[in-house]
Write a structure and sequence with these properties.
The protein is mostly helical. It has helices spanning 2-7, 11-19, 22-35, 40-64, 68-75, 77-110, 115-163, 178-189, 197-212, 218-247, 258-273, 275-312, 320-337, 342-369, 381-404. The radius of gyration is 20 Å and the shape is globular.
Length: 405
C-alpha cells in the first residue's frame, strides 16, 4: 500500500514547483531582509488558513474524476466565466513575472546574453519540454528539480546559520505604514501560492491518472498534496531565514525589478557567506525559479483549454497547444516592451491574487461540501470548521486592505 502511495507522487510536487517561486525567492527573502524574523507569523497563518482550499482540488478530482472547473460549471456558468476571466487576465503577468526573475538569475549566473534573450531561451526550452514530453516528462523532471532545490536551499541555510555572528530576535511585527501594508498583502497573496492553483492541482491529478492508467484514491491524492504543501512552507521559512541572517540590517535598498534583485541576491549571499556558499545559492535560486516558470507555463494553458471547452463547447476550440504558444508570445511581448514596469505588475498580480482568494475559497468549500461531492469523500468536521475560519480570515484581510487604501 505504501509503495503504491509513493508511486502516485507527482501533482503535489508540481504544486510545490509552481508555489516555490517569486513568493519564496523574492517575497520571503525580502520579508526576512526588511523585517528579520518578524513576518514568520504571516507565512504560518497564510499556510494554515489556505490549506483546506488547496487540498480540496485533489480531493474533488479523486472523488469525482472531474476538475474543479467542471465543478464550477455545475455551480453556474457565470461562476466559471468569472474564473476564466481572472485566469486570462493574470496568466500573462504571472508568467512574465516568474520568467524575468529566472532570466535575471541566468544573466547573473551564466552571462552571455541579455535578460530578454534569456527570457526567450527559457520560454522556448520550457515549451519544448512540455510539448515533446507532455505531462509525463514534467512529472518526472519535477521530482529531481524539487530534490535539488530542497538540498541546495537547506545547505545554504546551514551555511548562513553557521556563519551568523549577529544577535537576532523572533519578535513578530505587524506592518503599519502604507508601503509595508502593500507588501504584507502582496506577501500573503502568493504565500504559499495563489488559491487558483487549486484548479491546477485538480487538473494535474487527473493527468497523473491518464499517464499511470491507475485510479488515484482520495487518501493517496491527499498524501501526495500534503508532501508538496509541507515542503513549500518549509522552504518559505528557509528563505525568510536566509533574508534575515544575510540581508537584514545591511542598509541596502532592494530593487523591485526582478533582474536587479537577482543580482543583489547573489552578490549579498556571496559577500556575506563566502564563495563556498555561492554554488548552493546559485543552484537553489535558479532551480526555484525554473521550476515555477515551467509549471506555470504548463498549468495556465491546461486551465484555459479546459475552461474554454466547458464554456464554449464546440463553438470555439482552443486547445492546450494554442494557449501555451499564446502565453509564450504574450510573455515575450511583456518582457520585451514592459520589463521596466515588472515591479508594478508583480504587485498588481499578487494583490489581485489575494483579493480573489475569498472567491476561490468559497467556491471550493461549497463544491466539496455540497451535493456534487459524494458524502464519503467530503472533509471532516474539523476541516470544515477550519475552512469557515479561513474564509473569514481571507475576507477580513481583504476588507482591511481595501479600507486602508
Amino acid at each position: 500500500m505504501r509503495k503504491n502511495i509513493v508511486k502516485t507522487l507527482g501533482p503535489g510536487l508540481l504544486f510545490a514547483g509552481a508555489a516555490v517561486g517569486v513568493s519564496h525567492l523574492v517575497q520571503s527573502t525580502r520579508a526576512g531582509a526588511d523585517f528579520g524574523f518578524g513576518l514568520l507569523w504571516a507565512i504560518l497563518i497564510a499556510a494554515f488558513f489556505k490549506y483546506p482550499f488547496f487540498q480540496f482540488g485533489p480531493r474533488y478530482a479523486s472523488a469525482t474524476g472531474e476538475t474543479l472547473l467542471d465543478g464550477y460549471k455545475k455551480l453556474g456558468k457565470g461562476v466559471l466565466a468569472i474564473s476564466y476571466s481572472i485566469s486570462f487576465i493574470t496568466m500573462f503577468i504571472i508568467q512574465a513575472a516568474v520568467t524575468i526573475v529566472t532570466a535575471g538569475l541566468a544573466v547573473n549566473l551564466f552571462g552571455y546574453f541579455d535578460m530578454v534573450t534569456w527570457s526567450l531561451l527559457i520560454t522556448v526550452l520550457s515549451i519544448s519540454i512540455l510539448l515533446i514530453g507532455k505531462y509525463k516528462l514534467l512529472d518526472n523532471l519535477m521530482k529531481y528539480v524539487i530534490l535539488i532545490l530542497t538540498v541546495s536551499t537547506l545547505l545554504a541555510v546551514s551555511v548562513a546559520i553557521t556563519k551568523n555572528t549577529q544577535a537576532y530576535t523572533f519578535t513578530q511585527v505587524f506592518p503599519k505604514e502604507t508601503i509595508e501594508i502593500y507588501f504584507l498583502i502582496a506577501f500573503l497573496g502568493w504565500m504559499p501560492a495563489p488559491l487558483d492553483i487549486s484548479i491546477w492541482q485538480s487538473i494535474w491529478s487527473l493527468e497523473k491518472e491518464k499517464t499511470t492508467l491507475k485510479k488515484t484514491t482520495t487518501k493517496q491524492a491527499i498524501f501526495d498534496f500534503n508532501i508538496g504543501y509541507i515542503g513549500t512552507i518549509c522552504l518559505a521559512v528557509c528563505f525568510i531565514i536566509l533574508g534575515a541572517l544575510v540581508m537584514n540590517g545591511t542598509g541596502q535598498s532592494f530593487s523591485s525589478k526582478g533582474s536587479i534583485f537577482a543580482g543583489q541576491l547573489i552578490e549579498l549571499y556571496t559577500k556575506n557567506l563566502g564563495n563556498f556558499a555561492y554554488i548552493f545559492i546559485a543552484i537553489a535560486a535558479f532551480t526555484t525559479m525554473f521550476s515555477t516558470t515551467i509549471t506555470t507555463l504548463d498549468a495556465s494553458p491546461r486551465t484555459m483549454s479546459k475552461a474554454n471547452d466547458l464554456l464554449f463547447s464546440n463553438k470555439l476550440k482552443l486547445k492546450y497547444y494554442f494557449w501555451i504558444i499564446l502565453l509564450g508570445i504574450g510573455t515575450y511581448i511583456i518582457l520585451r516592451y514592459f520589463r521596466d514596469d515588472m515591479g508594478l505588475m508583480v504587485k498588481i498580480a499578487t494583490i489581485l491574487s489575494f483579493l480573489t482568494a475569498p472567491f476561490y475559497a468559497i467556491l471550493n468549500f461549497i463544491l466539496i461540501t455540497g451535493k456534487h461531492t459524494p458524502k464519503e469523500y467530503q472533509p471532516s468536521i474539523y476541516l470544515k470548521v477550519l475552512s469557515i475560519c479561513g474564509i473569514i480570515f481571507l475576507i477580513g484581510f481583504s476588507a482591511w486592505f481595501l479600507l486602508s487604501l
